[in-house]
Write a structure and sequence with these properties.
Length: 185
């Protein structure tokens, strides 16, 4: 099974993908995690991406597509995967379709988590306190939400038009939301 998990920053994509991968025995692919790993490893790509991520902007489509393509060519994706954080704009959604056509694959379901803005700001403030992620300060979070509304929200309509989108209430406990996702799948 191949899934796309959509939602604003702090909507629980990474949290829920980590649970779903175990329940469905598929791989969790987070472009945010791939980028943070490149930053931590000090690769050329990581050096380019760091300032963009810290500002709450999207890293260039070409760089992220290359990371994703490399990941999708690894053997452990054979049983399926959850894409978390990709696609982030319409160009990425189209690039993903082209990549999947080359790989003879398709997306089975797109799931969009719906969460109130104030809840998002509260969750990410807590993560900032616990983990100190450099893009979780309140001003950068508000900017990331703006980028989401402008660039990523149209991706939800893209999958709705394909007839494979389900909107999921992302408010409540992590277990409750996980059950809603499993019921939808
Ligand atoms: P991401 O890594 O995707 O970060 P995110 O949107 O904040 O989501 P994440 O999955 O980490 O958090 P979650 O909602 O699960 O992106 C970071 C940056 O990388 C982007 O700004 C961009 O610069 C770059 N990037 C990534 N992908 C890109 C792409 N395709 N193109 C270009 N650039 C890209 O969880 C947030 C917090 O909420 C956690 O602390 C969690 O514990 C908590 N939480 C979750 N569910 C909860 C619940 N039900 N109740 C209470 N708390 C909850």
């Amino acid at each position: 099974m191949r899934l796309v998990l959509l939602g604003p920053p702090g909507s629980g994509k990474g949290t829920q993908a980590a649970l779903l991968k175990d329940r469905l025995n598929i791989v969790h692919i987070s472009t945010g995690d791939l980028l943070r790993a490149a930053v931590a490893a000090g690769t050329e790509l990581g050096k380019i991406a760091k300032a963009t991520m810290d500002a709450g902007e999207l890293v260039s489509d070409e760089l992220v597509l290359q990371l994703l393509e490399d990941r999708l060519n690894e053997p452990d994706v054979a049983n399926g995967y959850i894409l978390d954080g990709y696609p982030r704009n319409l160009a990425q959604a189209q690039a993903l379709d082209e990549l999947l056509a080359r790989l003879n694959q398709n997306i089975d379901h797109a799931l969009a988590l719906i969460v109130d803005e104030e809840q998002i700001v509260a969750r990410l403030a807590q993560r900032a306190a616990e983990q100190g992620r450099s893009d979780d300060s309140e001003s950068v979070v508000r900017h990331r939400l703006h980028v989401y509304a402008e660039q990523t929200a149209p991706v939800v309509n893209y999958y709705e038009d394909k007839g494979i989108l389900t909107a999921i209430d992302g408010m409540g406990s992590i277990d409750e939301i996980n059950q809603r996702l499993c019921d939808a799948i």
